[in-house]
Amino acid sequence: MNKDFNSYDKGRHLSLVFIFAIGFGVSILLGWMAFPELLYSKHPQPIDFNHKLHVKISDAGCESCHAFRADGSFSGIPDIANCSGCHTKVENGGADEERLIHEYVEPGYNIPWHVYARQPDSVFFSHVAHVKTAGLACDSCHGDIGQSTQLKIYQKNILTGYSRDIWGRRTIGEGMRMDNCKECHQKMKYEGGSVQTEKDGCFVCHK
């Protein structure tokens, strides 16, 4: 009697453990898929900018808009003066060009772009060190953004306030990641390159 009871009790216990494990696994899977959707709010850019068109008609490529100042510092996101040099009236750009002219160029307001790559305050990044000194092409880190005809939706982390795309979408492994920086620094230091990095530790970027 006791032997049969113990067998029944053990079987029931194993069934409960199995059911719990299945439920736990399903919960983790659903949470993994749902959490990013809850964590990030989505915001369209004010103007749906066509990089491919602008790169095609510019003389300096990326630096036509994302330029370096005379002192070597990087200007980053262009102000409305960059746009107004070419866009003086509505021609054939559709609703986005009309919005650009009437809402920003004519009153002289800068476009409130959502910046995908704005770094946290604890991170120091020098464009001049990478582009001018090391000779890296823009697409080494930014990918083929110069061939894009539309801007992707900006996704903002509701906890930190930073873009989802600073280092790429970690949950699915897309885009640039911190490991890419570390690997490149190590390669420059130990295998040689156009520029030798002095360090490859955390404090190179985290000040």
What labels would you give this structure?
extended; two-stranded antiparallel sheet; 207 residues; mainly alpha; 2 strands
Describe the structure.
The structure is a single chain. With 207 residues, this protein is mainly alpha-helical. Among the domains are: 2-42; 114-204, no CATH class. It is built from seven helices and two strands; from the N terminus they run αβαααααβα. It has helices at 2-39, 51-57, 80-84, 94-105, 127-133, 139-142, 178-190, and strands spanning 40-43, 154-157. The protein has a two-stranded antiparallel ribbon with strand order 1-2. It is extended, with a radius of gyration of 25 Å. The termini are far apart. Residues 170-174 have low confidence and may be disordered.
Level of helix content? Answer: 40-55%
Mean pLDDT equals 80
Strand arrangement across the biggest beta sheet: 1-2
| Assembly annotation | single chain
Task: Output the number of helix runs.
Answer: 7
From the spread of the alpha carbons, the general shape counts as extended
